[in-house]
Design brief:
alpha+beta, two-stranded antiparallel ribbon, 42% helix, 17% strand, elongated
């Protein structure tokens, strides 16, 4: 089993590494996945060729960027609606 965490490469850039489990899932992992499902946190999890991939949570900045793009495009959308 490889563990997840942070890894610094030769440039000093910190990157995330993933956890890979080979074999049967431990009970703790099953409980974790069930808890994610019960809380609705597994909406973006996927299964690729039989391998379960847990999607990471979006960074809070994503919501900020989404709202900024919406505000930026709102006048363009309003102009488009006026033509209808």
């Amino acid at each position: 089993m490889r563990t997840s965490g942070l890894l610094s490469d030769s440039t000093g850039i910190i990157q995330r590494v993933k956890t890979v489990l080979v074999g049967e899932r431990p009970l703790e992992l099953e409980a974790y996945l069930e808890r994610r499902h019960a809380l609705g946190q597994d909406r973006f999890d996927e299964i690729w060729e039989g391998t379960y991939h847990v999607a990471p949570m979006a960074h809070p900045w994503r919501g900020y960027v989404d709202s900024q793009i919406g505000e930026l495009l709102a006048p363009v959308v309003d102009i488009g609606r006026a033509d209808l």
